[in-house]
Amino acid sequence: MGSHDVMGVLTLDAYSREEWKAYFDAVALIPKPHTARRRASAMAKLCPYADVAAAGLATVKAAIKAAEDMAGPKDRAKWH
User: Fold this and answer.
1) Model pTM greater than 0.85?
2) What is the DSSP string of 10-73?
3) 19-50 per-position pLDDT tens digit
């Protein structure tokens, strides 16, 4: 469990699929959309499980969309 330092190179394949899923779920809770999107994209590139990375990015994208929908439009003319 955790990462390994092999000859000075950090490898992230030591994390389980569940740990990667939990990471993306936690990133989806970040209230700043730009930060959440940036962190999820960066870690998706490092994730050794392509399906988990794709699902994690979709989860973050859906969370950002839901937060935007709850906030409503910024243009007050579109409120009604």
Assistant:
1) no
2) EE-TTS-HHHHHHHHHHHTT-S-HHHHHHHHHHHHHH-S-HHHHHHHHHHHHHHHHHHHHHH--
3) 999 999 999 999 999 999 999 999 999 999 99
